[in-house]
Request: fold
Amino acid sequence: MAKADTSGGLSAEERDAVKQRAKELREQEKAGKNRAAGDKAVRDAIAEMEPADRSLAEGLYKVVTEVAPDLVPKTYYGMPGFANAEGKIVVFIQAAAKFKTRYATIGFEDRANLDDGDLWPIGFAVRNWTPEVEAKIAELVRKAVG
Reply:
C-alpha cells in the first residue's frame, strides 16, 4: 500500500519554513516578550543568510531600529521580522535564497497602518539596498507604526 502524501502540496522549502515556525513559537513561548532573545534570534537569522540577502536584511534591521524602536525583533518562519507590543509581526524580510526566488521581499502584515483607500501595496521586491530603497522603506515603516 502506498503511503499517503501528507505534505498538503507544500514544497520542501515551505515544509521547512513551517517546521521553523513551530520551533520559533516554542522558543518564543519560553522567552516571553524578551527583547534581547528576539534580537539575538533575528541577528542569528540575518547572519545565516546568503550575502546578497544579508545586506538587505541588515538594511531593514537598521531602518526599523532607527525609525520604529518600539517594534520588537522576532523571527517569523525563520525570517527576520519586527513585532508590535502584542507580539504580532508588522514587517519582515523574506530572503530570495530561502524560497529560490529572484528577489527578496520586504512584507508588511495587516497590523501595518499602510491603508490607502481600497488598494495598497504590502509587499516590496528588493534586489539592492540603495539610499533610495532605504528612504522608501524608512517612510513605509514610519507609516506602518504611525
Remarks:
- The beta strands are 72-76, 79-83, 89-94, 104-108, 123-126.
- The radius of gyration is 16 Å.
- The mean pLDDT is 89.
- The first strand starts at residue 72 and ends at 76.
